[in-house]
Amino acid sequence: MKRVHNFSAGPAALPLEVLEIAQKELLDYQGEGTSIMEQSHRGKSYTRVDTEAKERLNRILGLGNKFKIMFLQGGASTQFMQVPYNFLKPEETADYINTGIWSKKAIKEAKLFGNVHVAYTGEDQNFTRVPADEELNLSGESRYVHFTSNNTIYGTQFSSEPDSKGTPLICDASSDFLSRKIDIDKYGLIYAGAQKNLGPSGVTVVLIRKDFLETADKKDIPTILNYHTHADRIFNTPPTFAVYMVNLVLKWVEEKGGIPYFEKINSQKADLLYKTIDDDGFYRGIAEVNSRSKMNVTFRLPSEALEQQFLKEAAEHDLVALKGHRTIGGIRASIYNACTLESLEILVNFMNKFRADNG
Ligand SMILES: Cc1ncc(COP(=O)(O)O)c(C=O)c1O
Fold this sequence. Notes:
With 359 residues, this protein is an alpha/beta fold. The protein has 2 domains: 16-256, Aspartate Aminotransferase, domain 2 (3-Layer(aba) Sandwich); 257-358, Aspartate Aminotransferase, domain 1 (Alpha-Beta Complex), CATH 3.90.1150.10. Helix content is 36%, strand content 17%. It has helices at residues 16-25, 44-60, 75-87, 101-110, 210-213, 227-231, 240-256, 258-278, 304-316, 341-358, and strands at 5-6, 67-72, 93-98, 115-121, 142-148, 150-151, 156-157, 169-172, 187-193, 204-209, 284-285, 296-300, 319-320, 331-334. A 7-stranded mixed sheet has the order 2-10-9-8-5-3-4, with helices on both faces. A 3-stranded antiparallel sheet has the order 11-12-14. Strand 3 (93-98), helix 4 (101-110) and strand 4 form a beta-alpha-beta unit. The radius of gyration is 21 Å and the shape is globular. The protein starts with a strand and ends with a helix. The structure holds pyridoxal-5'-phosphate (PLP).
C-alpha cells in the first residue's frame, strides 16, 4: 500500500487511523455482520453513532449543551440559503463581511430573502487580507453578522472573531472547523462542510445556539429547510456513513488532545511553511502576513513555468494536490488537522531543494 502526502483543499486527507478503523469495520460493524451504512438510521447502532458524535462535538467545542447540533446535507452551499431563509425576513437586515468567493456566494443567496449590508469587502484588494475590527462598517440594526472564518481559496483567515458589537455571529467555518479555539459565546450559528477538517463529503455540521434558534422563523419554510425540523430528532435519512466517519474523526480528535493539541500543532506546521516561503524572494506568499491562514497556505514562484515544474516534481516525490485554486493560480498547500508534521517537513525539504536547484 502506498499513501501519498495529500495537500488537497477538500475533500481532504483523513487521518490514517480513522481510515483503518473504517476499513476494519466495513464488512462487519462491531460483530453485527453488516456495515453501518447497510443499517437503518433508526436502528440502535446508528442512533448510538449519531448521539456519540454530537456528545463529542459538544465536549470538544465546550458547547455546554447551549447549542443544537445537526448533521445536514447539501454542503455549506445550502447553508448560504438556509441561514437567511430561517433568520432573515424581507424587512430585516443582515451584515455580511465579504472576504472572498465563498462570502460572495453567501451574500448572493441572502439577498433573495432580506436586506444585505456589506460591512466590509476585500474585493478591490483581490481578497488578500481580512479586515481589522476598525474597518467593519456595521449597520447597527443587523439580525446577525456573517463571516467566513477561513478563506480556502486565497489562504486568509481571521485570527479571532470579528467584533460584531454583540450581534450574534454566523460563521462559515468549513475550512478551519476544530482547528483552534473559538469564543463560542459570540456565535449564534456555525456551519461547516465536513470534507476538510471533519470527515468525508456528504454531511454538513450546523451548530445553532438554542436561544438564537428560538428567534428563527417557525413557519413559511419548507419542512426540510426549517432548522426546527432537525433540532431535536433525525427527520429523514441522514448520510449515515459520512456521520459514522465524522464520529471516528471526533474520537481521534479527542484522543489526540482536542482543540489545544490541534491549535498547537497547526501553528507549528504553518510557521514552518511560512518561514520557508519567507526565506528569500524565491517563494512569495499571496495573503498579507497578518491575514495568513494556518489551514490553506498560498504562494507563488517566480514564473508560471516554474510553478508547473514545482507541481510536477512535487508529485514525483508523492507530494500531491498542491495546485492553487483556478481563480488565483500558484500553489496552495492545505494543511488541515489530518496533515501530519511529517508530511509538512517532507514538503518543506522539497521546497528548499527546489529553490536551491532553480533559484
Ligand atoms: C469556506 C468554504 N465555504 C463553502 C464551501 C462550499 O462547500 P460545499 O461544497 O460543501 O457546498 C467551501 C468549499 O470549498 C469552502 O471552502
